[in-house]
Amino acid sequence: MVLRCSRLDNKDVFSKSDPFLRISRMVENGDYIPICKTEVINDNLNPKWRPVCLGGHKFGSKDNPLLIECFDFNSSGDHVLIGKMQKSVTELEMLYREKTGANFVIPSTRQRQEKVLKGQLFVDQYCEKEQFSFIDYVSNGFELNFMVAVDFTASNGNPLHSDSLHYIDAHCRLNSYQKAIMEVGEVIQFYDSDRRFPAWGFGGKIPDGTVSHCFNLNGSPGTSEVAGVEGIMDAYGSALRSVTLSGPTLFGPVINMAAQMAAQSLSSLNNTKYYVLLIITDGVVTDIQETMNALVKASDLPLSVLIVGVGNADFTSMEVLDADNGRRLHSSTGRVATRDIVQFVPMREMHSGQISVVQALLEELPGQFLHFMRSRDIKPQPLPTHFPQAST
């Protein structure tokens, strides 16, 4: 809905009120729980707010009463009530259809009555849209296809030395790369029916003597897929014995490879796959603009990129790739990313806090998944129910 007000009472002395709306639903004991709040509009008695979205799970029935309060914002947190009203979603829809306003009221000290104010609430836009949840999709056949890319640049240190980030411990203690693969892979594999995962390395000198920025971790010239998380771990250990660490740190080739797979899936009839690429790296990406170009191009595809930073490098510049500040990535041609598809997490920060690497990495994944599905108007299709044939 798009909500606006007119002729609100002014609660400020030297300027006009700074109004915002708070919408609450009634709970069983008669109290009200806030479910939605608009932004504050400064110095305006006829405000119009940005669209608000009320999920049906928040208000229940369209006929349930909602408390709509208009406040004058104060930075101290002691906001002043301008007026209130009780309306159901059905009644708000009626205001929209009839193009009429509803008057706010305010408690009056006289005989416990409410004073009707001249200020009114209008519903300028109203639409209902069925929104599916992440669980709706994955429980109806949609899958997350897991992919991994491992950093084989020389800055990781010689794998034979115990101070290397790639050191394989004789007592089976996992290094940072192994921890990231295990922790993330074990969660995502449950959303992938065949559990065959493409796995690549980058920044390493492969047995033929060339430095590759996207080579199959299993050493196969044909397929990059391995079986399960255990297959990734085995391929990683094997690659450390055959690949020489080199450089520089380039993300572009592996992102483009993952994007190519996602694009092929998008063009298939069975469009029920969403790809999740995990990049594990110890250093700052060298090809930052090429990486941004690849991510902007991939933002139109069913793909998310999770990046784990291991070791003690300064990853500040990596935050540019993770558009958490609200600024979308731009390509070198000026194209803006359709959506944010990156989540970056430095592993050292996670191990020192209360939240796990998996929680931090996967926090934005359902939202990125839903953003893509909704932008394409892709709906979960109920799985066919198979009934056993009756015997005769």
UniProtKB/TrEMBL annotation:
InterPro entries according to UniProt: C2_dom, C2_domain_sf, C2B_Copine, Copine, Copine_C, VWF_A, vWFA_dom_sf
Where in this chain does the record put each C2 domain? 1-104
Keyword Repeat, does the record have it? yes
* Gene Ontology cellular-component annotations: plasma membrane
Molecular function (GO) terms listed? Answer: calcium-dependent phospholipid binding
Q: Which GO terms describe its biological process?
A: cellular response to calcium ion
All copies of domain VWFA, residue ranges: 145-365
Alphabetic keyword roster: Repeat
Domain of life, per the record? Eukaryota
Enumerate the Pfam families for this protein: C2, Copine
Q: Which family does it belong to?
A: Belongs to the copine family.
What name has this protein been given in UniProt?
Answer: C2 domain-containing protein
